[in-house]
Design goal:
heterodimer, A: mainly alpha, ABC transporter involved in vitamin B12 uptake, BtuC, 0% strand, B: alpha/beta, Rossmann fold, six-stranded mixed beta sheet, four-stranded antiparallel beta sheet, 9 helices
């Protein structure tokens, strides 16, 4: 190839790749939109689009209660928590160069969940305070896992195994607190054990949306440095990226996203873990992995919740459905990772 | 390569460095000749990589300083250093499925701002790097599909795309067969001649280091044993002190310079 041909080929490829990123992200946004529409309009029976619009606009004769008080908060909570789990998950997976290192496998979701349930049930906190407790607890667990695995940034099996141990410990804390709870209620328990958007209220949505803006923004600001960090610490530093500083910011952002989402909807099983690898398959090696993972997270929660509510013989919380999808994928990843040591 | 490198003064002053409590490098003072190729040689664990990583600002020194044009690099912003000095580490990691041109493009990172888009200068730098390393033909291929020698050339292309005046390389020829070793070293000389890039590399093949370097630094136990022109540094005494090996020095029939022939306990005709 001549220099001119290479120039054309590279420029053409970048253009194609740009189009591909836009197309893929656009497709995912459309899918999320469809699922939101489905959640709003269809329950046992389906509303006509005109009735749905009328209800959303607050017309008197429209089924306003069902749409605005039941379905809208549910769809909104599914959307924002899905985005948070997807973004937080992929950030950890990319940073630690291992798909198994997602926050729900290495105990960060579990710690946020345990802290939230403790704050609500034992300390009777609510609102932002619960989320703040969950974030702090998540950060404490990250520090603990890093200290125990004693190799900062290393994505070794050691870090993941320690994370799994910590996760199991914290799950038992959650179970214990729930047993101690005075008004023991099965739906509430399911929320903290597997994650659920049942009984969602708009009041739960706003803190998660705030977290999405703040921590999502932080993540977006470091996303280029995060991408360079994939080349290894030395190569990244040689390219002007401060490895430790980048890791710190990514960790705070990811823990913030996951902890806020968890304190609202519980640790919705495997959404953080599944979103990144699925996004990587959708996007290929091109850019746009982070937003794609966020959107996939939203798709998983919205679709999982709809399936759990209306497409199975029993009504199940979303975490049970995503868990049933996630567990086989976890096995597949472990088998595949052992075979070729693949990253995300 | 159209952009000429500026001559940069890279010096180490009474440098000590190591990991945790262990000090590996002690009191090393070094002046890297600008626009020349410097090779660092020495036995295993003598501190070669530690010296390179400290020069490259990756490792914080325990004592002394590294100066780039008179300024302490460890006090400079990472991005500013990365615009002037590049490093190819011993085992960089390639993201799965990445294409050659994409990886080479990563070398442009220090020249891009948070919101700045890919520019024509970035394009030119990547194309020139592909050209110089002979990797243009597989610009579109995935890195995983290339041979070891080709992959190493791509990594060097990434470092070239960074367009730094100083390039540090940590054992750029490890894991390569002898033909590819020569290919990579020839490429570094090409680049040095064409752009005037200052090259500092750690090499473990003493004879190749002697042949390709303008300036040779022999390290032993974290200290500089000797440095200077390869003809002056490569002596039987130096090899004994640095590597603990008996040898003969003879003339390299190809380069005309010295070359080392090791003496082991077996296969020797010496009395």
């Amino acid at each position: 190839m001549s220099a001119a041909e290479v120039h054309m080929a590279l420029a053409g490829r970048r253009q194609r790749e740009g189009r591909r990123v836009v197309l893929a992200l656009g497709g995912l946004v459309a899918l999320v939109f469809c699922l939101v529409f489905l959640t709003l309009s269809c329950g046992r029976g389906c509303l006509a689009p005109a009735d749905l619009m009328a209800a959303l606009l607050g017309h008197e004769d429209a089924p306003g209660f069902i749409v605005n008080d039941l379905r809208l908060p549910r769809a909104a909570l599914s959307l924002v928590t899905g985005l948070c789990f997807g973004l937080g998950g992929v950030a950890f997976q990319v940073m630690l160069r291992n798909p198994l290192a997602s926050p729900d496998i290495i105990g960060i979701s579990a710690s946020a969940g345990a802290a939230a349930v403790f704050a609500i049930v034992i300390l009777s906190f609510d609102g932002w305070v619960v989320s703040a407790v969950a974030v702090v607890s998540g950060l404490v667990v990250v520090v603990m896992i890093w200290a125990l695995s004693s190799r900062r940034g290393a994505a070794g099996a050691r870090l993941i195994l320690i994370g799994i141990g910590v996760s199991a410990m914290l799950d038992s804390v959650t179970a214990y607190v729930l047993l101690e709870a005075p008004a023991w209620d099965r739906a509430e328990a399911m929320r903290w054990l597997t994650g659920s958007v049942n009984g969602a209220q708009m009041g739960q949505v706003w803190p998660v949306l705030g977290a999405l803006v703040v921590f999502g923004g932080l993540l977006a600001a470091v996303s280029r440095d995060l991408d360079i960090l994939r080349l290894g610490d030395d190569a990244a530093q040689a390219l002007g990226v401060r490895a430790d500083g980048t890791r710190l910011r990514v960790t705070v952002a990811a823990v913030g996203l996951v902890a806020f989402a968890t304190s609202a909807a519980g640790p919705i099983s495997f959404v953080a873990f599944l979103s990144g690898p699925i996004a990587a398959r959708v996007m290929g090696p091109s850019r746009g992995l982070l937003p794609a993972a966020g959107l996939i997270g939203a798709v998983l929660v919205l679709a999982g919740d709809y399936v759990g509510q209306f497409m199975l013989p029993y009504r199940l919380p979303v975490g049970v459905v995503t868990g049933a999808v996630g567990a086989p994928f976890l096995l597949y990843l472990i088998v595949r990772t052992n075979r070729n040591g693949g990253t995300i | 390569m159209n952009v000429m490198a500026k001559a940069r003064q890279l010096t180490a002053q009474e440098l000590s460095a190591g990991y945790d409590r262990r000090t590996i490098l002690e009191d090393v003072s070094l002046e890297v000749p600008a626009g020349k190729i410097t090779a660092i040689v020495g036995g295993n664990a003598c501190g070669k990589s530690t010296l390179l990583r400290t020069l490259a600002r990756i490792l914080q020194p325990k004592g002394g300083s590294v100066l780039l044009d008179g300024k302490a690099v460890h006090q400079m912003p990472s991005r500013a250093v990365a615009q002037v000095m590049g490093l190819l580490p011993q085992s960089p990691i390639a993201p799965e499925g990445i294409t050659v041109s994409d990886l080479v493009g990563r070398g442009r990172h220090p020249h891009q701002g948070l919101f700045s888009r890919w520019s024509a200068a970035d394009d030119r730098a990547v194309e020139a790097a592909l050209e110089a390393t002979g990797t243009r033909a597989f610009a579109e291929r995935e890195l995983d599909t290339l041979s070891g020698g080709q992959r190493q050339r791509v990594w060097i292309a990434m470092a070239l795309a960074q367009e730094t005046d100083v390039l540090l390389l940590d054992e750029p020829t490890t894991f390569l067969d002898v033909a590819h070793q020569i290919e990579v070293l020839d490429l570094l000389v090409d680049m040095n001649l064409a752009r005037g890039t200052t090259v500092v590399m750690v090499l473990h093949d003493l004879n190749l280091a002697v042949r390709y370097a303008d300036h040779l630094v022999a390290l032993a136990d974290g200290r500089i044993h000797s440095e200077g022109a390869p003809e002056a540094v490569l002596t039987e005494d130096m090899v004994r002190a640095v590597f603990g090996l008996e040898c003969r020095i003879q003339r390299d029939p190809i380069s005309g310079g010295p070359s080392m022939v090791p003496i082991g306990r077996h296969k020797s005709q010496l009395a």
